[in-house]
Amino acid sequence: MAAVSSPPVSGDSAAAVRGFLQCAIALYQDVFALHHDADGDEQNDSSTTDGPSTAGQRLAVHAAALGDSLEALRAVQPGPDEVDAHPLSTLPGACFKVAQDLMLHLDRVTGELQSNAAFDAISLRDLWSLRDVAALGTRLQALSKKFHDDVDNTFEVRRLPLPDLTPLKQKKDEPQDRDVPPKEEGQEDRGKQKMRRINIVPGDNKFIEVPVKHRPTPDSIVHDYILDTLSYKSMHFREQEVTKAHSKTFEWVFQPLTSTGEETEQMSEHPFSTWLRGDSLGPIYWITGKPGSGKSTLIRFLFDHKATMQRLSSWAAGKPVLTAGFFFWTSGSREQRSQTGLLRSLLHQILSAHPEFAPAAFPDVWKKLKTLTTKERVALQLDWSVADLLEAFQGVMNVVVPKMNVCLFIDGLDEFEGDHTAIIEFFKSLCLGEKGQSIKICLSSRPWAVFQNAFEYAVPNLRLQDLTYNDMYRYMRDKMRQNTHIRHLLKHEPEAGEGLIKATVDKADGVFLWVRLALNEMIRKFDQATGLAGLSAIMQALPAELNDLFHLFFFENQNHDELAEAAVIFGLMNARELVADFIQNDAANALTLWEFAFALKGREDDSAAVAEEVKQTSAATAFERCAMAVSLIMHRFSGLLGIHSPSESSARGLRFADKNEDMSEVREAAARRVTYIHRTVRDWFMEEPGVMDRLVSKTPVDFDPHLRLLRSYILQMKNPLEEVEHHRQLDEWWPGIALAMTHARYVQKDPRHLQRAMVNEVDKTISWYWLRKTDDPYDHWARYGLGPYRIFTIAAPLWQPFLCLATKFGLARYVSEEILARSALEGKLSDQAKELQTAESTPLLAYATEFLCSRNKTIYPLSDPRLVALLLNNQCRINPGPNHPYTDFWTQQPRTPWITVLRHLRDARRRGWIEYYDVDPQGTARWAEIVKLFVEVGGADKKAVVAKDSWDPEITAVGVMELLEETYLAVEMKELVDLMKG
């Protein structure tokens, strides 16, 4: 559920919210206690009160109090003429919705009380399920946190016993994504031994059948398959982007320390080296430090250094040592900041180095893969959950630890997107018991309270900013010497030079990033005429705090036009993060130079995107485009953005091939990713008060980052760096298509009405590449984005596949304009073209509602009421209405879009895709609005009947709505029942 993003409430609204939360929490606690009574448990503290004793009396008291709080909330709801965000987006609006649902619950209980004099706790349990109670507690806790007030200090949801809330009727093998597809030929015989025919006499027509012996899949193939499913494209991005330590930086961690005793000078090693060598300091070491002090660089240094392995070998005392590392990155993809990404990466590293442990990690999967044929293995899709990965990791540790020692290096715990306490406990649990003697974990994080409480006095640790003075001094001295003129000054004015370096390092106060940025600025502004004194003046003028330094570089050192260009770059980066996260393409989270190259220019490239033909780009053109992008990015962000190679092997300094050379270096440069150089930079842009607003104010009024990136995709396809090739491998183009179509959906500013032309150009360009089957009039690349080939062989033809695909991607404005344009041309179509327009094809309305209640495992958006309304209001030959009969693509059964909607709702209830007390504007409120549109605007058949299937019996349209109301008792569902019956 999306969090309720509400502004602070005050006055009457605050009083109404507080009153409701107090009433609702008291009701929740009593209902929870009554459930205990029904189970025969001893009464707990929440059920021992001086008030009414029977279940009915207690709930009657709550009903009266809740009724008053409901009226108070109603009084502070926005009026019908007020234009504002969705009411559920406000805290009073969310509370009002939950209050209405609770009143429906209490009304049902009241009705039972009037008809059943023996109503008791057991009767209540039958009316008010434990799943419902659990959801209520969670929802009230979330609303209380949003209120930021001490509503009830004793309120605690975690004590609710939830052993298993999965519905008993829900089968484990039920399909999760769509209806069951039809059986393939021979599928009903699966499980039987396969036979093959052998000719008895050559040339004769007599055959015998003999059993086919299936050979087990080789271990190496199974191992490689598992590794492939664990990997993800951004798995090594962060480690590659972390700055490598400057020469001799951090060497102190492995060098002897000198301490003076009473009589002699004694030598000892750094505590970290001692920790690596043995068990005396415990299994966990914590590295902390200020933002920008170099923690990630240190972790990479330690992870890669041969001295680390030497000391770990001493600790292992003859046993092999296994090392693995992970770098959390809050600016990266979802996997780079999640527990699933952590576990997948660690498992991949361990199993890559030691394939023999794979059967222990995934015993069931291993056995299954050993028995599958190549075709079955290719069709298999493994989706790793956190529970699966935790079990696998534990399985690996169980077999690894007796045979070898393990050391993990984990950077950036503060950048983990989740419960920090939980991730701390996860790492601590790895070291419990005897395993702690064979496992070491080096962790790094900012000095946040949650980490200080866990590690500061419990494990050995170091504060990095206290130990890097000499490193920063050496870094600055060496970098200054790289400039010929400054090196000459340092040689002839050594005292002044040393004073300048020391003053700069002192001002940095342990923040390595500050030294790096300040030095870049000093060298950029260096003037031979002023010498070292001028450099000192430049340094003295720089602010000491990082945020102030960013402000100086970004806002004060650039004029209005330069800030507008910077705002464009920032908008493009933000737009890509949003889209890549939505479609879960972790490799596309950061834009490449080649993507920037076609997104930075204005109207000239808009025209080229539509008018140009496909041609391989030349090295000279690629050089010019990439150089322009690099120059603009570096100048407008003053070094706050970095350009990183996609592979460690090509991570040398950025340069381009000469015009006459081949394209290999240009392709490598074009693929480089543009990212923030440090988390503090991104945090400043995103979280520092006033920065985002100022950037928005500097953005050109007609600029839309999503439209630019849609255009960029088209121009990349029209200017390929590789030799042009026509083929039918849609998988090669699909990631880019998904990005482009999703960017198209987010377009808002389009004063020149370019979206439709650009989207159509995506279709035209891919169609140009597509190696079409001339004997198939329905052949089109977009068809294969709607379903697998094996279904097309038996499904009704799709005669407008790209428009269907655009509908699935939620392109409301594009679909509207395209329907109007195609309808206008209807009379000009040839008879042959009209024959292709079969009525059996799945209509646009069905695609628009395919993800009505859930977008489980899909790149497509939830069904949009605006798009549905558009389709219902523009019914025509190419867009028939909700009662139009068609043949279902997957099951080959007769359907209508309205029947499909009803099936979605029935299935969503069974699969648990509908939430109780749903206050997400994109949840129940959204799909309920779509159902209303079908009935009120589209004239959907209220007497429609949904046929039975493998899980549910036959049911009427009214029955579906009543089933939902009975299950959830939500105000939206009650309104739908009234609408259907009315």
From TrEMBL:
Residues 170-192 have a biased composition (Basic and acidic residues). SUPFAM superfamilies: P-loop containing nucleoside triphosphate hydrolases. Keywords: Repeat. Residues 269-446 form the Nephrocystin 3-like N-terminal domain. Pfam families: DUF7791, NPHP3_N. Residues 587-719 form the DUF7791 domain. Residues 162-196 are annotated as: Disordered. This is Predicted protein.
